[in-house]
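Treating backbone geometry as a discrete language has practical consequences that deserve illustration. Part of our work consisted of pairing the sequence of a single chain with a tokenised description of its backbone. What the numbers capture is local backbone geometry rather than side-chain detail. For completeness, the protein is quoted in full, as a sequence line and a line of structure tokens:
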Amino acid sequence: MTSTVPDAVTTTWQIPTFADVLRARRQIRPYLRPTALHSYPGLQELVGTEVWVKHENHQPICAFKVRGGVNLVSQLSEDERGRGVITASTGNHGQSVAYAARLFGVRAIICVPQNANPVKVESMRALGAEIIFHGQDFDDAREKCERLAREHGYRYIHSGNEPLLIAGVATHTLEILEDQPDIDVIIVPIGGGSGAAGACIAAKAIRPEVEVIGVQSAGAPAAYHSWKARQLVEDQMSTFAEGLATRTAFELPQRILWERLDDFILVDDAEIRQAIVWMIEKTRNLVEGAGASPLAAAVRLRDRLAGKRVALICSGGNISPAQLREALNS
């Protein structure tokens, strides 16, 4: 059941521009290489049209968010670097901040829910971040993180309401359209919405006719209902796919999505698990739930996509052994 977030939309955000995306590419180029964009006959047969996969699961942290983390942390002031950074995450955003903090010699503290994906937690620790477990879901961890930031003066990095994060992750769509300029549709997973917001900024600047479609789990539809209502709402959070799992929407990504996202669909967790298996079978790539969700959406939209050239943003590959076993056995 949805509920409106009271007094949520109160901040005037600086919405990133395409010029910011181009600057972000220059900023991250010394540290991150462009990722592969591959087409697979098996996926084309499955979806019934030409399909390309943007392999953000091939990033150093196996997730697209590292683009935003490097763009933001590389531009912190000396004061901010000295105070250290803190953020909340279900995993991939936390990995991106930890990776960038290690790169630039900054202390990083990551607040995660008690049931956070152990693969992602281990990665954050290995990157040198301090981990604080708190609460049952992302929003519990986020509230703890915000309290600690106020109490200790850390530089708080919100996982969505950060223009430099959005400009950074938008570079994945810039790369897609440079590699394949005739792409008609880009399907992108949505949790907090930074990746989809970035996709919209880049795609609409390069070729306004490109259709950007967001996909989220029906088990955590806060962003979907916020996009439909054009206001921030809270909703349930019961999906296994932690990359899609937020129970509140984020203001800055939503403002971009309200203006530029062409469509938004929900898929259920069974469809996402099936898409994980298909990705393994058809592309020989290990992907997490969020990373498989664009394929689940493309199969759902098969008739609508007929005759179009479709890019799927495979946002990450950080699946836990338990999640993989459940997908293979479902």
Confidence is low (pLDDT under 50) at residues 5-10. DSSP finds 16 helices and twelve strands in the chain.
